[in-house]
Each structure stands twice: as structure tokens, then as C-alpha cells.
Amino acid sequence: MGEILSGDEAVARGVWEAGCTVAAAYPGTPSTEILENVAKYKKDIYSQWACNEKVAVEIVIGASIGGVRSFAAMKHVGMNVAADPIFTAGMTGVNGGMVIVTADDPGCHSSQNEQDNRNYAPHAKLMMMEPSDSQECKDFTKDAFALSEKFDIPVIIRMTTRICHAKSIVNLGEREDFRPIPYERNFPKFAMLPANAVKRHAVVEPNLLKIEEWSDSCPYNVTERAADSKIGIITSGVSYQHAKEVFGETASYLKIGISYPLPRKLITEFASSVETLYVIEENDPYLETMVKSLGFTKAVGKEKITCQGELNAEIIREALTDAGPADVYKVENIKLPGRPPVLCAGCPHRGFFFTLHKNLDKFVAGGDIGCYALGGAPPLSAFDYTICMGAGFSTLIGMEKALKAQGDTRKPLGMVGDSTFFHSGMTGIVDIVAAESNVVACVLDNSITAMTGHQDNPGTPRNLMGDPSPVVDLVAIIKAAGVPDDHMRIVDPLDSEALQEAFDAGYEAKGPFVIVTKRPCAMIKEIARASANKFCRIDPDKCRGCKACMKIACPAIKFEDRHAEIFDPASCTACGLCMQQCRFGAIEKVGE
To answer: For 248, which DSSP code?
Structure first.
């Protein structure tokens, strides 16, 4: 039976078919939909949104040691967070099969970098597989659990944005009746104290050589021979699809499915059989480096194919052939206006950033990763830098020292969302308190993990599987860290006056000061339903055309014919932020 599935959906199906028991992840595009689809199999698989990727991997390591098959998923930058347990798991090996997905994002479609996580496999000494379509996503994932147990090693499934989100037909199978492997105490294998770790390393290296030997003839590394072709292409993942589109049957291909350990014998045999050798891959010269280390220094790769962004057939065609652009790629030279992402109408963060912008003479503001990262773009332009999740808090400690050293009287102010607070903001606030930093730390609590599609977190009343769960009180955590009541404000971010008072108090305070803004995301279903018939209306006769309401950058407002207008009542939520800016009483709420 075949179904049209995205790569993410296909991986989830493979997890189920393999008889997996425990799955955990932290949401992040392009990996988010994997665990959301795994959760549909709640009868057979326990699924959990962990508070960060490190915790997710540690959950599945515990399940693996305990004897069941387990699975974790994350986007590429999430693997940086999870690296500590991942590297150790490379030494311990497994009991029940363990599979980890890294979903890379060439082109930075939704990420702060485009790191190539293939480099993690040799670094952490893990087996790695790279599917090139949805069918392989399902098949490779299912098989990865058995390979993990066969070779006593965690297996990485490395995907990219196009593989995650593109759809193709997938032939489905049934769930394997995997029986848990009984847990037996094995201190030398699983307790990574120095003496044990040294001995385990001596086991891991020969095991990798055994896997490499197997990979030379395994069914995942595939050679496709073209009649009389002098051109050979070594490639993997989505790059295989692009290469096939350009060269078709005029070239031979070595499609790498097991991309660590790489099949050196197979690569040598293939490369020796062609006159012209191309290595086609996105981002880093991962395959190319191996090919050239084997002596094939004339292989053509990154000297002609960019290491930046996503590849496509046109880039490969122009780089490696004399053919001009194919007709299918010809488009009219139309200059389209830029459409940068914006905060939704009614977004509670808009009020926070609008008021913060007016206070930037007093603060140096740092942002973080989430939909509130949009607050740094014009016209809100409310913070100066963004690094990674949680850095909106921890960078404040260093920033305070730097400003003080040069006599700058501005005060560091940083922010995280509620989900980011649980992810990596908690440790930041602990260090802020311990360092007695004279800073303002803000938690923008909108009651959901909004940016990646409304996933639940420890502060929401249900879990990934839809069951009720305790709500973790982030305000109580902040107080427990040592922030007193008189150094904390809890405000509605759409109440400009209350928020301004909080900023004033934060600036005047000595030592750590925390502002928690609390208002649910306007797109949460229950909130959206409650505001479905509510919107604001601007009276054109009262409007003076001052454009004060336009400064909040609400996508439901436009300015035309010398006055403002709510041109999209369906998206307006009657949040009232625009009303607070109008000095002429031209805006009123309707439907309340």
C-alpha cells in the first residue's frame, strides 16, 4: 500500500514500523513534523517534547540502555545542544537500537546558520545514513534500528530541508514485533568513567572498520552504471536528485546511503572506472575530502559548486556543463516586492517591542531564537543581536561587564520566550543571579512554542500526545533562583503604560531584575475562536493621518488616502495596541 508522504512523515512511519517504544525531541524546523507524526502512534510509542535537545537524547539513551528501541529528532543546531550525550553514546554503544535524526537547513530558511552535520558522525564516531527521498526516509529509519543493534552503535539519519518537506509515494509496511532486550547491569560498557571510556574507545575503532567493510557491499550505497559513460558522479541525499535531473542517463552514479563510515573500497572502485569524476553535495566538501584523500585529487567539487546555500539543478548545470539554462527554469524578469516575515496581527510581542524601542536610549537589548526574533527587524528594531537559544539571558552577564568597563550607562536587557526559558533560559537566570549582574532579563510568555507551530512545552497544560500534564510555573522557578518580588514585574505586554513602568523600574534597580510578559499567542485555537468576531475600526473622519498607529507594524493596518484603515478585520484581534497610540480617539473596538 502506498501513500504520499513528506520525508518527515515517512521517518515517523519508519519509527513505528521498527517497533520503537520511546521517542523524544525539541521542535525545530525542518524536523518538527517528525515527532508530531510519531505521536499519532501513541498506542505503541511514548512520545515527549523535551525541554531541550540534550534532554531528548538523554531520554532515549536511557530507553536504549533499558532494552527498548528509541528515537530522537532535532534540527541541525539542536545537535550542538545535544552533543555532550551524543558523543558519549558513541562510546557506550546501545542495548536497544537508538536512532537520531538531524535535519539540516542549507540556505538558512529558518535557522541562524547552515552547518553541515555530516561532520558530527566521524567526530562522535556514530554510524550515519542519508536518505534521498521519502521512501528511503521510511526504509532507512526502520532499518537503522536493526543496524544499531547489529553493530552496537547509535545511528544518525541526516536529512535536509528538501528531503524533510518534499513528498513522494511511500510503500508502507507493518509494525515489527520487537521484544525488549532484557536489561542487565553492564558497568564497564555504560558507565563512562575515564577508565571505562578508554577501554570502550578501543572497542569502537575496530567496530567502525567492521561497519566500513560491510558498507562496501551493503544495499544502501548504490552504483548506477550508464552505458559507455566516461562521467562519474559521487553524491548523496537530495543532491542525488538534482544530479540526476541534470545528467540523466549520461553519467554513472555512486549514491552514498551510508555516509559514515564511508565505503572507501567502493569509492575507489567507482572513481577508478571513470575519466571525469564529479562530487556533488550541498554545503561542506564532506564526500569530496574523502574522495581526494584516496588519491583522486582531480575530482571536481567545491571549486565549481558553491558551499553556500541549497543546491538545485540549475546551479549544477551551470557549474558542470556547457549547456545553458534549461527552458524549465526560464522565468520572466519580474521584480517582486520583498515580503519579510512579520509578527502576526494581535501578537503580544508587538507591544513589548514597540515600547522597548522607545527605551533604547537606556538599554542595550539582546534577542533570542523564536518568533519574537522578528522584533529586531524594522520598523520595531528593538534589539541589537541574536546568537542562539538561551543566549538572550546569558550574554547579558558579559555585556554588563563590557559596558561598565567603558563607562556606558546603558543597561543590558535580554529576552527569551517561555519555551526557550525551559530550553536553556533557566540556567542563564541562575548565573545572572549568582553573578549579581545589573541587568534586565525578560521572559515573553505567550503560553506556547509558537514559532515552530504551537507545540506544547512544560508550561502548557497538555503534552505531545494530547494528555493533560502539570503546568510548570516559570515565575516560581525565577523566584526560586533568587529574584525577589520587588525585582520582578509581571505585565500584559499590550498594556503600554504598565510595560513602560516595568522598564523604568528595571533600569533604576540595582542587580538582577526580571520582567515577565504574559499574554497567550493570538493564534492559539481557543484564543483565536474567542476573538473571531472582534476587531478594531478606524473612523476616517477622526483620523488625522499622523501614522502613529502604523508604527506598531501591524499587518492588519494600512495607510491610504491620507488616513489609516483596518483593511483586514479577519486578522485583527482587537488587541487594542493601536488604540493606545491614537491621540484623537479614531480607533474603536467592535464586537465586544
So the answer is: G
Answer for the pair 20, 71: CB distance below 8 angstroms, yes or no: yes
What is the distance between the alpha carbons of residues 212 and 424, in angstroms, rounded to a whole number? 37
From CA 396, how far away is CA 410, in angstroms rounded?
12
Query: Does residue 274 contact residue 252 with C-beta atoms inside 8 Å?
Result: yes
pLDDT greater than 90 at residue 348? yes
Q: In what order do the strands lie in the sheet with 488-491?
A: 363-366, 411-417, 440-445, 513-518, 488-491
CA 35 – CA 563 distance, rounded (Å): 47
Residue 531, number of CB atoms within 10 A of its CB: 16
Closest by CA position to 35, among listed 418, 425, 452: 452
Q: Are 112 and 388 in contact (CB under 8 A)?
A: yes
Helix or strand (DSSP H, E) at 18:
none
C-alpha dihedral over 192, 196, 202, 205, to 10 degrees? -10
Does the bond joining 194 to the residue before it have cis omega, within 30 degrees of 0? Answer: no
C-alpha to C-alpha distances, 135 to 9, 30, 70, 169, 548, nearest whole angstrom: 10, 18, 21, 7, 54
Q: Would you state the cell numbers that stand for residue 411, as one nine-digit string?
A: 543597561
Phi, psi of 232 (to 5 degrees): -125, 140
Taking a C-beta distance cutoff of 8 angstroms, is the pair 416, 443 a contact?
Answer: yes
For residue 79, the surrounding DSSP H or E stretch is: helix 76-92
More confident residue, 229 or 214: 214
The C-alpha cell at 482 is 533568587
**Which amino acid makes up residue 17?**
E
Mean pLDDT of the region 528-554: 92
Nearest in space to 144 (alpha carbons), one of 233, 17, 248, 290: 17
Hey, what's the cell of 560? 491610504
CA dist 429 and 514 (Å) reads: 9
Q: Is the dihedral of CA 522, 527, 528, 530 positive or negative?
A: negative
Rg of the chain's alpha carbons, rounded to an integer? Answer: 27
Neighbouring-strand partners of residue 98: 70
What pLDDT, in 10s, does the model give residues 409-441? 999 999 999 999 999 999 999 999 999 999 999
DSSP 25: E
C-beta of residue 228 within 8 angstroms of C-beta of residue 173: no
Task: For residue 551, give the C-alpha cell.
Answer: 508604527
3-state secondary structure of 115: coil
pLDDT of 368 > 80? The answer is: yes
Q: For 484, phi and psi rounded to 5 degrees?
A: -75, 160
pLDDT tens per residue, range 549-587: 999 999 999 999 889 999 889 999 999 999 999 999 999
Cα end-to-end distance, the chain, whole Å: 51
pLDDT at position 331 over 60: no
Contact status, residue 75 vs residue 455, Cβ threshold 8 Å: no
- HSE-CB of 178 using CA atoms within 13 angstroms: 28
Question: Helix, strand, coil shares of the chain as percentages rounded to 5?
Answer: 40, 20, 40
